[in-house]
Amino acid sequence: MLVLAIDTTAQMVGARVGGFALARDGEIVASRTAEPEDGLAAALFGEIEALLAEAGCALEDVDVFAALSGPGSFTGIRVGLSAVKALAEVAGKPVLAVSNLEALAFLGEGAVRAVVLPSRRGDVFGAVYDAELRVLLKERQEPEADFLARARGMGAEPVVAEAGRPLAEAAALLASRRAGEAPEATDANYVERAAAERNSA
User: Among 32, 112, 126, 163, which lies 20 to 30 A Cα-Cα from 68?
Assistant: First the structure.
């Protein structure tokens, strides 16, 4: 099975870095990053063509299209998801949306994996998983100190994502293990603030 995955969500703190990866039967066969001056939207399909050419593949060879679905840059999320949904629709292939937080946990180590992405106003996006990527603490947006305390109370030292680091390879490998869905059923992952924080705002 050949999976094409893209990450256009790593546009935090002004970065315009995109990631693109191909995985065949659970192994990465090609990967690239790009930081085009005109933005990712304009360069996206050219980067995908270059990735496929590097691996000696054609678009019709792809079995599953995957994209990082957030949390992250609102515009970046929409760009990536719209692109893979359009490609999958034309090819008649499934799509898989991959959570940025789960992708980070996939790259982590240890029995308990707490991962953090920067948000705004002192908040972070965070979640805690076990080694099998089962959710121990569901994805949430809350003040950084609150999440760090929760994670440490569960025995995990949170891993903070590198700003601008694409997660396309992780998404490709995760998608290799799962069934995709119809393009129209795929949506962005906008994590809400934790209930207690919303109620006190």
Answer: 112
Q: Which fold has domain 104-161?
A: Nucleotidyltransferase; domain 5 (3.30.420)
Q: Give residue for tokens 């994670």.
A: 151
Could you read off the pLDDT of 77-124 as tens digits, one per residue?
A: 898 999 999 999 999 999 999 999 999 999 998 999 999 998 877 899
| Distance from C-alpha of 23 to C-alpha of 27, rounded to nearest angstrom | 5
Q: Where are the beta strands (DSSP E) in the chain?
A: 2-7, 18-24, 27-34, 64-68, 95-98, 112-118, 123-130, 135-143, 159-160
Classified by CATH at the fold level, domain 2-100+163-194 comes out as Nucleotidyltransferase; domain 5 (3.30.420)
Six token digits for residue 78: 């929409």
Question: Hunting for tokens 């869905």 — which residue is that?
Answer: 181
What's the CA gap between 112 and 131, in Å, rounded?
Answer: 6
Assess contact for 178 and 96: CB atoms under 8 A: yes
Q: Which residue has the tokens 């949904």?
A: 85
Q: Which pLDDT tens digit goes with each residue over 66-87?
A: 999 999 878 888 989 999 999 9
Q: Which residues of the chain have pLDDT under 50?
A: 12-13, 195-201
Q: Please give the model's pTM, rounded to 2 decimal places.
A: 0.87
